[in-house]
Amino acid sequence: MDSLRSEGDWLESDFSGHMPYDPVRFLCMRGSGRLWACDGEYVACRPNDFHPATRQRHANFLASGHYEHVGTFDDVQIFKLLPGSPFRRDNRTFMPGVNLFQDIREAAKAAVARDWALYNDILEEIAGALKSRFHADQAKTMFDDILQTIFQNIYLRGGPSQAEVDAGLANIRLKRGVGKGRVIALPNR
């Protein structure tokens, strides 16, 4: 027993700083086939399963220093977001894509706070979840209904106009290299 104590008490060691793949973070990546998850501080992804255009965009972001590789678990690669990355968020306690009702509430709060990175992440997670579970037409109808609910919540919280939300969303999408930053606007309230 004394020989174990002389080496230090390994049961009390703090391993939390070594790898970010703890039991809670990126739980959504386990066994789901999900390709991408971002909590604002780290990115978990399966680049081998990416579409070629997405793989190229991922390589460009890696080359331009938006994030750096810190480890791999099975087929999931973990990257740390570096300062100045358009994927970095201040709200790192919330993981979009786990609970739809929480996503709707957090999307409205993000829009009111004008946190367009978080707002975009939430909308992408909602859209991805719907597209993976439902036929395209049904997924679009459901997504439109969810957007209406989000905009109602934004309005009730005294948030920005739809034009400001659309502009903020378009800007963050341009920074992230997704499309041309165009957003389909909903009918006026």
What does this structure look like?
It contains 6 helices and 4 strands. It has 189 residues and is an alpha+beta fold. It has a 4-stranded antiparallel β-sheet with strand order 1-2-4-3, with no helix packed on it. α3 (100-112) packs across α5. The radius of gyration is 19 Å and the shape is globular. Residues 1-18 have low confidence and may be disordered.
Q: In short, what is this structure?
A:
The protein has helices at 2-6, 52-63, 100-112, 116-133, 136-156, 162-175, and strands at residues 36-38, 42-45, 67-73, 76-81. The protein is α+β, with helices and mostly antiparallel strands and 189 residues long. Mean pLDDT is 77; it is low at 1-18.
Strand order of the largest sheet: 1-2-4-3
H/I helix tally: 6
Structural class: alpha+beta
Rg: 19 Å
Spatial gap, N to C terminus: 71 Å
Strand content: 5-15%
One letter per element, helices H and strands E, the order comes to: HEEHEEHHHH
Helix content: 40-55%
Counted beta strands: 4
Shape: globular
Number of domains: 2
The residue ranges in which pLDDT falls below 50 over 5 or more consecutive positions are 1-18
State mean pLDDT (0 to 100 scale). 77
Major pleated sheet: 4 strands, antiparallel
